[in-house]
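S., here's the first fold you wanted:
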Amino acid sequence: MPTITIDGKPCSYDGKKMILQVALDNGVEIPHYCYHPGLSIVASCRICLAEIEQPNPRNEGKLELIPKLMPTCQTPASDGMVIHTKSPKTIANQKAVMEYLLINHPLDCPVCDQAGECHLQDYSYRYGRGESRFQEAKIKQPVKDVGPYVKLYSDRCIMCTRCVRFTKEVSGTSELGVFGRGSREQIDVFPGQSLDNELSGNVVDLCPVGALLDKDFLFTQRVWFLSKTASIDPLTAGGDNIWIEHNEGQIYRVKPRTCAEANKWWITDETRYGWKFVHSEDRLAQPRRQQLSDMIDCDWKRACAEATRGLRDAAGKGAGTIAVMVSPMLTCEEAYLLGKLARGLDSQAVLAVGPVPTRGEDKTFPGGYTICAEKCPNRRGVTRVLQGFGGEVIDCDALLAKLADKACPIAAVIVTGNYPANWVPDALPKALGKRFVVLIDTLKTALSDKATVVLPGATWAEKSGTFENHKNRLQAFNAAIPVHEGARPEGQILLDLLASAGLSSPAAFDAQAIRQQIGGALAGEVQLPKDDAEMGLDMQYVEL
């Protein structure tokens, strides 16, 4: 395996890579602004320049110093190279670049949203001078509203052009460009255009300074108060890897987590801003049951007892009298427990997958990122697990047709939701009729006032589990925030129902333990989330 040496540290690599990427892959810090592994290389910021010694094949392979500083982002690594990023010549260049970048940069770090994760701030401390020699007045640039989600603070921009290259190469929409010359040069949208594509929020993640900011997150929370948890996109079948950033039980933002097999470095605006239902005022927060045609609040013990009593009564009428509608928004572990509950009570219970929302068609961008038309995270995983119980797994339309048949023997139905908005098909309440209905859901819907027993569940951010994306990649995720007051994770609800029905002993939900129970369907295939120590280092930068 070829190896280069960076500041005395041997760094191995595979294939053809630039020196900077080899350094990043090996945890070696080389300052950089314009370079990003998902974009073209322009070598414009110049702070990554370093002294390089390279073997000379014409001189018996002896190391010879290249007489000028070379951009490590644009120089291919070659076996035997020796790179010096801390030599006097390299350090002098780093200090000069930082001084030039800060000439017109405003000293507004205390009010800048990027403070705490700003690489201009970090590099200024690490590589810059202790004081500025610039005495003249700074040039002021305007603040611009460039799109529905993004605000541009032009005077903070260092012209790395990451955002411009992203809109040209990845989204293919080319809304952003470089305008002006010299000290008046600035990023802006083209006349008559707005930064309004499905991937627009990614330019905020790409910006290494506080020039492009997220209007949704602006002035809401200091980043050093935030904790982050590895998770998976809960809204589409793409299986995008994300970070949930939260504080004191409140989600403040969602950002992409690098995964070459799923989403590379990007996420859609739909995923980035679609988490608001977690804190919706319409969250179900109390178990409820029907009494004399009215819905009344009750405690969890009473609700579970009522649910299992009704299901047992239905099962006593014969085989095939229980049906379960498993939402594709639920995890594989929850689907397994639902199947176990239904088949434990009725060996011929009908297993169905809930409504699968779709919007348009799959859309692939020039950069290779695909937005899935299927707006649920786990249809394939739910189907896979239910098929493990044997028998046919039907879709929502087929279940509705069965329920509408007057000769249908189904007397009780377990219905699950967990969708981010009202999901109930118009035909479902009528098809359920006067059957015994146990509803496990997170938001108030037309069904939550008509079910026999209502059990409030948890959103994906409040629990752990596994989703299977449209490429059949199984990915696990962890709970980020506490469960909404009064609700419980579906996995725990189902374990409580199993215990109440006498089908298992009381237990606390453990996603990993349930995966082991599922066995062959998931064993060895699930991509487990890594902790911050393993995944916290975003390869866009090296954290200081």
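And the second, which I think is the more interesting of the pair:
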Amino acid sequence: MRIQLYALPTLFLLANGHAFGQCDSGELEVTIEVQTDQYGNETMWQLVPSGAGCNATPIFQGGNPAIDCSEAGSMASPPGGYASNSTVEEGPFCLTAGGVFDLISIDSFGDDQASFVIYVDGVYAAAFPGVGGGLQVYPFTVALPAERDLAILSSETSLYGEIGLPVVVAVTVKNAGASTITSAQLAYTLNGGDAVTETVTLDLAPGEQTEVEMSTTWVPTAAGVDDLQVQVTGVNGDTDMNTVNDAITRELTTYEAIPDLTEFYLEEAPTLTMVANGDQDIAVARDLDFHPDRSRNELWLINKDVFNTGGSTVRFSNPGEPDQEFLYQRDPAARHFLSLPTGIAMGDNNCFATCPGVYDANGNQSTATPFTGPTLWSADPAIYAQNQFGPLGSHLDMLHVTPRSQGIAHERWNRYWVVDGTNQDVVMHDFKGDHGPGQDYHGNAIIHRYTEVTVTRDPNNHIVSHCVMDKRTGWLYIVDHGGQRVLRLDTRTGNIAAGNPSFGPFESYVQYKNVTGATWEVVIDGGLSAPAGIEVVGNTLLVSDHGTGEIIFYDMNNDFAERGRVAVGTGVMGIKAGFDGRIWWVNATNSTLNRMDPANANVGVEEAQTTPWSIHPNPANTVVRVVAPTAEAGTTVTIHDGAGRLCLETPLSVVVNGLDVSRLPNGVYTVTLDGHTTQRLVIAR
């Protein structure tokens, strides 16, 4: 079981002479610790009764008096108020025991918030991290915490998976009690079945939190939708004294494994089809990937474009089909966050990441601080590339220690692997919890650099060196373009080295370390001219050669022996297997998207499955109608958002006139009926 501490609030022991017990009967003494960011003058906050709203009936106002509630997120930065990067104690306040109050935090510029820690009678009671937009409301209850209380805050278990691919069960837990937690018992169940229980060793002071990965993975054996519940069953060898926050459920959709069609491609010349070109806004395409929610049926392509504008994406719906549609998008802040991108990797949580091919994303390409690295994005159409989030665009996160990145691969949740073209090595980036669209807090990231792996980039900074994760084994396969070879790294080996990396960091992270002693090896060291893209399908490793214009097939079960080649045209870069086993690739020279089909077009194509129910209209605005003529009595309709959170649950029998979705924000949702498939719903207004 791997455990990683992050985002730990500074604990403040009240030693400033405050005399507790001075409040009236029925009241408790509350002290609030304010931790400012690098712009403390942009903070104003109010303590108000629950639901009162900003400036309604403030009990107390702190921070910069020059800031008004209406100025939240206005990009104003007036002088005055708190010092930057400081900790300020406010109070004590005598508040009604058991009462609920709101702490309203304003950041006038609209980026990072101040952080707050609440103490009741000198004991830690709550903490609110400094993330989010210009105005945040944090409710809290005035009560002494239980002695032992481990809360599950969120689940980082995949939303989407495939048969045979291990699913890591992961949750973020927080010590919400009064005593340090040294151990806990966690258990997970699948669809209410037998529990898998583990004892976790912790060192969590009150208020601290950490992500826990359970060592026993779940390997799905059938396609479908499953409910995975994780629960706290014990703390410090005893019971958890507050069971309200002990459990969380994740709905995981499992799909069929992608078939390996290599033998069909090589036994008879396959059919090569150009699916899209410049007419669909492709401009020097470098990579592509499929959204893992197969109900969306989306292929995302990334354009290099030019430095002055930044890169762009083209999203294809129903790619390669007669009703194919495309959407070209460039984020408002693409010049920094999508600067000459080399790769794109879809995550398992409705996010994706890209990596830039520049030395410095601020525009200096040789002498300045190389402030650049992978960027995390939301695949929610209501967020990605939208223009309402301020000067930093819609990006969710960005880390800055991998200049001239050459390729990126997803592992799980917000953990990605990047080929560093400047330092010629491989780096693991775990964004952890993102900072939200258009914000700029990066301090909870964990970054591991594998300096013993050597990769040489194209000296002209054009041809990529991609990587791909085999999620069955944990091997990361890496193209070494300059070495004309392919490597693999066992990401489950190695140890954190003493000291710090010699490169960077240029901002603060929870952890930035070298990893040494990891197992790695060369698997292909001949027969390649200008290798670029890479993919794993079944027992086959595929490599694209930009120079020879071939996709080459290697047998992973036979010492990576070459099985054959298919000529697809010089300029090929990123390659990807579709969910039906078809091979897709992009060509950077002629700016095209292409697909390879076996000569027998019916190979690998499943018979169409009829869906016994439907939803309409889709996209929807205010009302969605569910038509399910074969549904059984008592069938329940559920709607989950892109992060897997339950938004609506109701019996089908009471919504014959439609579901009211007017309160749901724009985005992509999943609608599920008992015992039936999940369907995709888009809400757009």
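Why I say that: Helices lie at 262-267, 334-337. The longest strand covers residues 224-235.

Talk tomorrow,
H.
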